[in-house]
Amino acid sequence: MNISNFSLSNSKTSFFIFLWLIISPSVNANLSDNTIRIAVSKSPLSAPFIIAQHNGYFNEAGLNVAFDYYNGGHRAIKALFSGDAEIATSSEAVVMFNSFKRQDFSLFCTFVTSDNDVKILTHTDSGILNLQQLKGKKVGTILGSSAHFFLSQTLLMNGINSKDVHISSVNPENSYKMLNKQNLDAIVTWEPHAYLGKKELGNKARFIEHDRVYIETFNAISMRDYAENNADKLASVTRSLIKATDFIKKHPLISQNIIAKNLNKEAHIITATWKDYSFSISLDQWLLTSLEAEARWAIEQNFTTAKDVPDYTEFINIAPLKKASPQNVFIFQ
Predict the structure, then answer these.
(1) What DSSP designation does 316 have?
(2) Is residue 6's pLDDT more than 60?
(3) Quick one: pLDDT at residue 33?
(4) Has residue 160 been placed in a domain?
(5) In whole angstroms, what is the distance from residue 83 CA to residue 225 CA?
(6) Short-list 32, 7, 45, CA closest to 241
(7) 225 and 321 assigned to the same domain
(8) pLDDT tens by residue, 115-139
(9) What strand order describes the sheet that includes 166-169?
(10) Are residue 256 and residue 304 in the same domain, yes or no?
(11) Buried b vs exposed e over 59-74: b needs ≥16 C-beta within 10 Å?
């Protein structure tokens, strides 16, 4: 080996390593600055975001998007609050619960509604055949979430005092396992966990019919300061979601397969509950009414020490949707 050539080669290598060390931090910083991190609830409810990413609609809009999946909107919004995401997907109930704690966030569009995403699943050995028989039983649900509000409202509408039901906190991914072990008599959870519970319990599973008194919404949420400094980005995200919902309506079977693949679920799990969802990008006046009703319930049930219902017009940012598709804004602030 020629020593002089070896030294020259090493010198060149050292130079390029030195150059890379100088340049790479700024390159990485730029990538970080341009990337929109989205905390996505691991649910078919998040389908418009998943389709927009899968079909390249975010890229077409000039956006660099990265997903992190979370089991439930209550966890996705925590990622937003901790600075691990710029956008989160979550139900309006989670928005309501957090509105008593902080005012530095807002939702900028609703992308799906459902009156049957949350379900009541029992073990046949519990003997529960109807809602009235939940009295005195152990019922697990995800506290501080849409499932929690659904359970309380359903009990109320059926003349059942929630104090007569032993309600405990569970994680959605563990709830049906606890039910199968009969540590609980019933669970109140959202899809796909309700379906997975039915699958695990087999002929020991029983869904309890309810009045569908609660219409759940899933929404795109950001911090207020991010929204103020990135108005064009949020408008572009909204346009991408509109494209995605159009695709979902035109190609439901293809969409279901895309969602199944991205959520790492079997296609039949997604297909089984698909009819429960209505995908559309909007901001509706009744969303404000729902948030106010849920807030009054939270105050009455002492889930918060607050005495007054927040002004939810302050928690809704109409600007992105107004810019992307003004005809879909039905809120007047």
Answers:
(1) B
(2) no
(3) 58
(4) yes
(5) 12
(6) 45
(7) yes
(8) 998 999 999 999 999 999 999 999 9
(9) 166-169, 138-141, 186-190, 118-123, 205-207
(10) yes
(11) eebebebeeebbbbbb
Q: 138-141 and 186-190 as β-strands: parallel, antiparallel, unpaired?
A: parallel
- What's the pLDDT score for residue 25? 38
Chosen domain end from 207, 224, 243? 207
- Domain match, 234 and 253 both: yes
Domain end among 190, 207, 224:
207
Count structural domains, the chain: 2
Q: Which two tokens stand for residue 243?
A: 């494209």
pLDDT digits (tens, 9 = 90+) for 240-253: 999 999 999 999 99
- Reference 158, options 91, 204, 209, 112; nearest CA is 209
Percent share of the chain, pLDDT over 90: 76
Determine the straight-line distance between the first and last CA of the chain, rounded to whole angstroms.
Answer: 78
Q: What is the pLDDT of residue 260?
A: 96
The residue range of the domain holding 265 is 33-114+216-330
Sort strands 216-223 and 138-141 into parallel, antiparallel or unpaired. unpaired
